[in-house]
Design a protein that fits this description.
With about 425 residues, the protein is mainly alpha-helical. It is built from 22 helices and no strands. It has one domain. The longest helix has about 35 residues.
């Protein structure tokens, strides 16, 4: 069978199965069974694929994923995250778009503690959105910043999706995690700058209101008590990696332990909260590990059928430069992001992107961070951006059209950030070079 028929069969089967409503992991597993039967010798091929799936998840490098998820679940279900947002709210007073800025700063801090885009958006939406609506904030200044900053959790470590990308693409996990810090802070700064300028030019977008005047100590006290100690989790995770005393897996375990200890110190840790956090971690981790198992075999079958080599041979006939190839890959991800979820994007594209990047000697850490941003943008792009539907779930009587319009300016800011990182790779590569 020609390579393009094999490629069309495998990708077509996956897309068809997802269209009829089968979960992503099972869509890939069914496609793997079909491909193994056709290309790998029937029953023997299917058995080989099953063994390959087991070996794909028998990888100690995947251990940070459930540990990072557990960190976020503990902070969410013990209520520590909500207390931290309230403390930030007290600290910020007389600035245009005050609550919008609180959402961006609070979301960035929570991103550095949880790594969960959905949890970030849901938490900020439930805490801040009712107050914003009560104050008459325009949707672009209420829902927009909350959705935009939710995606930053994909970049700033600990990020379960970054670990997943590094594992699937065979990138150094620690370097990819560290490489997302500066891009994440750049995006957060752009969001704050946009909010301040827009609200300064048009105060009706975020009507000002009288904030209770508090002595300086009373404004800083909640921040010092409820936010600064949480930085110990971030320091434990990244500090141990930078110091060279812990692998990403060890640092993830240390961060998970720190989150439990801090919750206990605040007297927020209960058996119910711990049980809920563990169940949530188990559900999300099992789903991710199913996807890892399926994607490993999917890549192997594409290679065995000749689809990967055939497509790569055709691509290399074009005289790509590393820059044009990178832009092409990002464009593909941005288009796919309008229609499918972020994990499916990785599974479909990595078997082709990684060999092309290796052939053109593209820096994998730089490419990995750019891919994370492009995938993150898919969370905000209509019609099927995941965070758009998370926001719909936490709001009442708001149409999807309104949510789409609120997200569009922040998608533009993410394009700007992506352009800066393409033009200046050092913004991504400087911190990893220090490891």
């Amino acid at each position: 069978m020609e390579w393009y028929f094999a490629l069309a069969l495998m990708l077509g089967a996956v897309c068809l199965l997802m269209l009829i409503g089968l979960p992503v992991a099972f869509s890939f597993i069914v496609a793997n069974v079909i491909g193994a039967w056709i290309f790998m010798g029937g029953e023997a091929g299917v058995a080989a694929v099953m063994r390959g799936m087991l070996s794909g998840i028998a990888n100690f490098g995947l251990a940070p994923i459930p540990l990072f998820i557990f960190m976020g679940e503990i902070l969410l279900h013990t209520g520590i995250a909500f207390t931290a947002v309230d403390a930030i709210d007290r600290l910020i007073s007389r600035v245009p778009g005050r609550l919008s800025i609180v959402s961006v700063i609070g979301g960035t801090i929570f991103a550095a503690l949880s790594g969960s885009t959905i949890a970030n958006t849901a938490m900020l939406g439930s805490v801040l959105l009712p107050e914003m609506n009560k104050r008459g904030y325009h949707p672009s200044m209420s829902m927009g910043p909350i959705m935009a900053v939710g995606g930053i959790a994909m970049l700033i470590p600990p990020s379960a999706l970054a670990v997943l990308l590094a594992s699937l693409a065979h990138m150094p996990v620690a370097e990819l995690l560290v490489g997302g810090i500066i891009p994440g802070l750049i995006m957060s700064t752009l969001f704050i700058g946009y909010v301040v300028i827009r609200c300064w030019l048009d105060p009706s977008l975020a009507p000002s209101y009288e904030v209770e005047r508090l002595p300086l100590w009373q404004r800083w006290k909640p921040f010092l008590i409820y936010v600064v100690p949480l930085s110990l989790i971030f320091v434990a995770v990244l500090g141990s990696i930078f110091a060279g005393i812990a692998s990403p897996t060890d640092s993830a375990a240390l961060g998970a332990l720190m989150s439990v200890i801090i919750a206990a110190c605040y007297r927020k840790l209960s058996w119910q909260a711990l049980k809920t956090a563990l169940i949530g971690t188990g559900k999300i981790s099992v789903m991710i590990l199913f996807i890892v198992a399926a994607s490993t075999s999917f890549s192997q079958i594409l290679a065995f059928s000749g689809a990967t080599d055939g497509a790569l041979e055709q691509l290399l006939k074009i005289e790509w430069t590393p820059l044009t190839a990178t832009i092409l890959m990002l464009a593909v991800l941005l288009v796919l992001g309008c229609f499918i979820d972020q994990v499916s994007m990785m599974l479909i594209t990595l078997p082709f992107f990684m060999p092309l990047a290796a052939a053109l000697d593209i820096d994998l850490i730089w490419l990995g961070v750019l891919m994370l941003i492009a995938i993150e943008m898919g969370l905000l792009t209509p019609p099927f951006g995941l965070l758009l539907f998370v926001m719909k779930g936490v709001t009442e009587n708001v149409s999807l059209g309104t949510i789409y319009r609120a997200a569009i300016p922040f998608v533009g800011l993410e394009f700007l950030a992506l352009g800066l990182l393409v033009a200046f790779p050092a913004l991504v590569l400087w911190l990893p070079s220090l490891l």
